[in-house]
């Protein structure tokens, strides 16, 4: 029996890579439903190729055109019905979450409640509501959450057969992003093109900017803390420019297990879809050790990249702080991409929003939503004046 798959964010970088994996494994997987934001042209191509039973396009105007074209063939949802209703109605075996931001939070909670497999690429959802998502997962043991983010997928693989209790430290690696070798005093003049061009990975624009500020590592330490039940101070970030070791786990007995591979998201996506099986990978996606002359590791420079320090601080505070951090980062990065603030203002704006927020210790889902909304509005306000 083929497993059915719904992809939230099918037109994005992870979404398109997921379809490339499925394309090679049509005997195992069937695309049941696809959701996108506004790229109707890409979605239309995916409908033609994968014949889903339903699609979601957030943009209502573009969605009306899609409805006219496909009314007889499939169900078309828009923002009016909502991503949550769309995901519920699709009800696939596997939900791939490749949207950015928090829009898929309720869809993820529902999928866990219905005992589904969630292949989670999105990192913001665990940052915003990690306590609630993990508690839902514990109360629905037939559901599973397999991380797609390459570092977390690597850690998940390193932990196979080992208890989380025997972990001494998680060593979360990162290439250092496009600004690793640029001196701090030159940040005033860096171009946006440089900032969004990651040296090792091809990704969407938001995560590319996060990689340049190292906020991406900041979000990842919070994500790892929830996924692997580790206190934040047991998660150490290491800069590893070769991006071959995707992360490591050090155990109490001093042993360190690492996961290595090429920098291609199809590998962790395929793992998350197939787990616990391992399918043969596509040609060209294997490491050639004879061509690897060095693997370097160093501590990150938190003075040069203050976003990482802000994330550690928010993670230690926990409660509502990570939700505010993530929402503020999303809006600040958007403002930077729209030329409303300078690159160097991103951490300043986030810090200000964090210090203006009224801390809540154990927010429930409705509090999370209102804290998130508050942080979005507060950041927009600061980005207008800063
Ligand atoms: N890219 C990577 O290699 C990578 C690696 C690890 C983790 N991640 C994480 O995975 C997530 C996605 O990253 P990405 O790089 O793939 O981003 P991306 O290229 O910007 O794609 C985002 C996708 O989400 C869709 N989308 C956004 N808001 C939506 C909404 N409200 N409803 C429905 N669809 C919506 C977009 O649709 P339109 O484009 O049609 O507007 C697009 O398909 C992020 O959380 C990121 O941190 C990415």
Shape: globular
Small molecules bound: NADP nicotinamide-adenine-dinucleotide phosphate
Q: Tell me how many strands there are.
A: 11
Biggest pleated sheet? 7 strands, parallel
| Count of helical stretches | 15
Tell me the Rg in angstroms: 20 Å
Brief write-up:
The chain has 386 residues and is an alpha/beta fold. The protein contains 15 helices and eleven strands.
Explained architecture:
The chain has 15 helices and eleven strands. Helix content is 44%, strand content 15%. It starts with a strand and ends with a helix. It has two domains: 145 residues, NAD(P)-binding Rossmann-like Domain (Rossmann fold); 166 residues, no CATH class. Helix 9 packs across helix 13 and helix 14 crosses helix 15. With 386 residues, it is an alpha/beta fold. The model has no long low-confidence stretch (mean pLDDT 96). NADP nicotinamide-adenine-dinucleotide phosphate binds next to helix 1, strand 2 and helix 9.
Topology, element by element:
Blueprint (H helix, E strand, L loop, with lengths): L2 E6 L4 H11 L5 E8 L3 H11 L3 E4 L2 H11 L4 E3 L5 H8 L3 E4 L7 H9 L3 E4 L3 H15 L5 E4 L2 H9 L8 E8 L17 H4 L9 H9 L1 H13 L7 E5 L5 E7 L4 E5 L5 H9 L31 H12 L3 H17 L7 H12 L8 H21 L1
Parallel strand pairs: 1-2, 1-5, 2-3, 3-4, 5-6, 6-7, 8-9
Antiparallel strand pairs: 8-10, 10-11
Helix pairs in contact: 4-5, 5-6, 6-10, 6-13, 9-13, 10-12, 12-14, 13-14, 13-15, 14-15
